[in-house]
Write a structure and sequence with these properties.
The protein is an all-beta fold and 234 residues long. The chain is built from no helices and 19 strands. The strands form 5 sheets. A 4-stranded antiparallel β-sheet has the order 1-2-7-4, with no helix packed on it. Strand 17 and strand 18 form a beta hairpin. It is rod-shaped.
Length: 234
């Protein structure tokens, strides 16, 4: 997940400053957060300065521990720490051991959608009682996500039937965002007058909508015959 490289001179002179470097690379394809490098130095040398600046862990005595908080490393990113140090004794070998800690989170994203439905109903405006009435239902998903289990319902007025029933239930199924579905039915009137009703639509998740009332004027023709003749003829 993470690569730490250190570069130090093969030998240094006591009392003279020398440079060394620590490079930290994120090898993953996601962010590594709270990256922290700590360098534990054996006795015999001290850090003078660094870029970025270091902090110390005084609890690490008798050895010195220097700490760099690097924050977040993006995928493939490398951060470099440039250090100046000095050897202050004649030990033949002085050691520095670096340790790294980090946090690796797992993030997910999901899209929030809001389906919405509309329903409209139209009917033949005027017919004779013996003629069929064409009723059209149109349901539309005007939202941003799929509307599931869409159903159209209509309770017809007294005297009007579709397929022998005074109520209509039309399963529509799933409507994608922006999709409409049109259903056409033929109704039969058993009486004259102005007959009308409003449809409704429902979908899963508590979605519902009502249409305006669609009415049809049903006329019934009636014939009358009148006859007249003279009362008297010779």
């Amino acid at each position: 997940a993470i690569l730490v490289r250190k570069g130090v001179p093969p030998q240094v002179v006591k009392g003279e400053e020398f440079d060394f470097v620590i490079c930290v690379t994120n090898l993953t394809s996601i962010d590594l957060t709270n990256v922290e490098i700590s360098d534990q130095l054996s006795t015999g040398w001290k850090l003078v300065s660094s870029t970025p600046r270091f902090t110390t862990d005084v609890r690490a005595a008798p050895e010195d521990v220097y700490i760099w908080g690097l924050g977040t490393l993006a995928p493939g990113e490398t951060q470099r720490i440039d250090i100046k140090a000095v050897a202050d004794n004649t030990s033949e070998i002085i050691n520095a051991c670096a340790f790294v800690t980090y946090e690796q989170g797992v993030c997910v994203a999901t899209k929030v959608v809001e389906p919405a439905i509309r329903v409209a109903k139209t009917a033949t405006p005027e017919v004779l009682q013996c003629d069929p009435i064409t009723i059209t239902y149109t349901v539309t998903n005007s939202g941003t996500g799929a509307a599931n289990d869409v159903v159209i319902n209509d309770r017809l007025p007294n005297g009007l039937e579709i397929d022998g029933s005074g109520s209509v239930r039309i399963p529509v199924g799933t409507l994608a965002a922006g999709q409409s579905r049109e259903v056409v039915k033929q109704a039969v009137a058993s009486r004259s007058g102005r007959l009308g009703s409003a449809a409704s639509a429902a979908a899963s998740g508590g979605l519902s909508a009502d249409s305006g009332e669609a009415t049809t004027l049903v006329r019934k023709p009636e014939l009358e015959i009148a006859q007249s003749c003279p009362e008297l003829r010779f």
